[in-house]
Amino acid sequence: MSDIQEATNQLLDISPLENQKFIQVAERHHRKETELLQVTIGATVPTGFEQTAADEVREKLRSSCKISKDRGKIYFDISAESLAQVHCLRSVDNLFVVVQEFKDYQFKETKEEVLKDFEELAQNLPWSAPMAVWKMNNSFKKKKTKCKKTNPNSSKDKINKEQGGKRAERDVKKEFMSNSWDSNILDYYENPAIKEEISTLVGDDLASSKEDETEDSSKGETDLQVLKFRVTCSRAGEKHCFTSSEAARDFGGAVQEYFKWKADMTKFDVEVLLNIHDNEVIVGIALTEESLHRRNITHFGPTTLRSTLAYGMLRLCTPQPSDVVVDPMCGTGAIPIEGATEWSNCHHIAGDNNPLAVNRTANNIQSLLTKNQIQESKPSWGLPIDALQWDVCNLPLRTGSVDIIVTDMPFGKRMGSKKRNWNLYPAGLQEMGRVCRPGTGRAILLTQDKKCFTKALSGMGHMWRKVHTVWVNIGGLHAAVYLLKRTHQAFDHPSGQDGEKGAPW
User: Fold this and answer.
1) How many angstroms separate the CA atoms of 396 and 480, rounded?
2) Cα dihedral 122, 124, 130, 131 sign
3) Which of 185, 39, 186 is nearest to 99 (CA)?
4) How many other CB atoms are found less than 10 A from the CB of residue 274?
5) Which of 263, 237, 260, 266 is closest to 249 using CA atoms?
6) Looking at the DSSP assignment, which residues form a beta bridge with residue 326?
7) 162 — phi, psi (to 5°)?
8) What's the confidence (pLDDT) of residue 293?
9) For the stretch 327-340, what's the b/e string if a residue is b when 16 or more beta carbons lie within 10 angstroms of its beta carbon?
10) pLDDT at residue 238 is higher than 70
């Protein structure tokens, strides 16, 4: 064998190892470049709480934040390495990375010209950085899924743990049936009314769906096969000569032509967003598949409050360490659970007059404890919450013992009635005034029955002073969140009553 042949064989023997090292170095370099990317993140938030969400972004991410003209959206700039922290924000529902923003988009006069512009727009957008962030986000989600799948607890164990709550859930279903509520009742508070027109379409006709594959194989092969996508267009404004479905169709077709992706309405990998608000056009790529507001609740009730809205309400009253925070009409416990998660140095008390609601709250607390125990791989020490059944008009709490009251009052639609509210609201406000600490106590109260609440509050001027009102959209209903401050006047017990009997706190 010649010297040249021997050297060649040695080189061939070494090459695979060297090649592997080169690939590893290249991958590390690519990851470093990706993490240094500066991108704009868009987030949808509960309407009315845009400022609260912006404050959280500035506080936790140290990033400037812009509130959109389009209600319910905020935008902020981050480096891609902070992406995991973005997913930990408590006030945002959905996240997307902005491809490009047009603050004053010039629409043509005819529909054909506008749609033609959308087709050309898709070919000229700066897709590379947002797609790099999407891939990074996708790998982040895969890690979370992998952690869940290595959970030693079997589904059988989970079933055994939840058996105690099954009877209550069956009672809830009977309760729903007896009241002839519609099939969307569980989403009553979870689906905010969207005034703009929204369409989800793709460029070509959908191919017939194949059999479902396992999550690992479908997600793991994403980079090796053609990506599936859809385009969702939301449009608000009266001066547009086109519909959202037409914009999604033509823009989606151009996106498909550009990337050579496969269109799929349901089993998509990438969701491209086309948000149009008057003359503002924003193209983005979704980073969340499911709204982040579903993080704490597993046992839903007829009026389950969104966790993001619960966080916004709690943040309005700025809880301080050692504060006693009470939700006297807790429903499924969304407010106290959110409070105990974010403000664990306070003590949270949840109560309701309905035993089913108290049961659901207890089940949601237990589910969250189990989830935390699985994630941390160690026993959970519990949450600073007490849950019990009581009457909001006769609370078993000592006078002046509560620092903060935060609650979602019955609207008189899904729960209670408008007629009953005329007695409930004044009696409830008086009892809340009794247990709330004079001078420093405050209350955050959500209601859609504004007329009744205003009337009840007008008779409580000696105990409550209205500080601020936040207007929100709850399931299509125009509601209000009232921030009240407890006056310095001590509660005057009615003659013959001391208000302290049977009070455990």
Assistant:
1) 28
2) positive
3) 39
4) 24
5) 263
6) 349, 405
7) -95, 0
8) 76
9) bbbbbbbbbbbbbb
10) yes
Q: For 494, which DSSP code?
A: P
Q: Tell me how far apart the alpha carbons of residues 248 and 497 are, in angstroms, rounded to a whole number.
A: 66
Q: How many CB atoms lie within 10 A of CB 154?
A: 9
**DSSP secondary structure letters along 195-239:** -SEEEEE-SSPPPPP-----HHHHHHTTTTSPPEEEEEEEEE-S-
Which residues, including other chains, have CB under 8 Å from residue 306's CB and lie 6 or more apart?
Answer: 46, 93, 189, 190, 293, 334
- Longest CA pairwise span in the chain (Å): 114
Q: pLDDT tens digit string along 32-70?
A: 555 578 999 999 999 999 999 999 999 999 999 999 887
**Predicted pLDDT at 56:** 96
d(CA 295, CA 493): 42
Please report the DSSP string for 145-193 in residue order: HHHHHT-SS-HHHHHHHHHHHHHHHHHHHHHHHHTT--TTGGGTTTS--
Q: Cα(306)–Cα(367) distance, rounded to whole angstroms?
A: 17
From 333, 105, 280, 258, select the one nearest 270 (Cα to Cα). Answer: 258
Which residues have C-beta within 8 Å of that of residue 264, sequence separation ≥ 6?
Answer: 202, 206, 207, 209, 228, 229, 230
Q: Which runs of consecutive H residues, i.e. helices, occur in 1-70?
A: 3-35, 50-61
What are 270's two structure tokens? 């990438």
Could you tell me which of 402, 412, 403 has the C-alpha nearest to residue 447? 412
As given in the structure block, the two tokens for residue 441 are 């106590």
Residues 34, 36, 37, 39: is their CA dihedral positive or negative? Answer: positive
> Is the pTM for the entire model greater than 0.85?
no
DSSP string, 257-289: HHHT-EE-SSS-SEEEEEEEETTEEEEEEE--S
The enclosing H or E element of 180 equals none
Q: Which two structure tokens, joined as six digits, stand for 66? A: 């812009």
And the tokens for 197? 């027109």
**Contact of 72 with 45, CB cutoff 8 Å:** yes
Question: What residue type is 171 in one-letter code?
Answer: D
DSSP structure string for 360-383: HHHHHHHHHHHHHHHHHTS-----
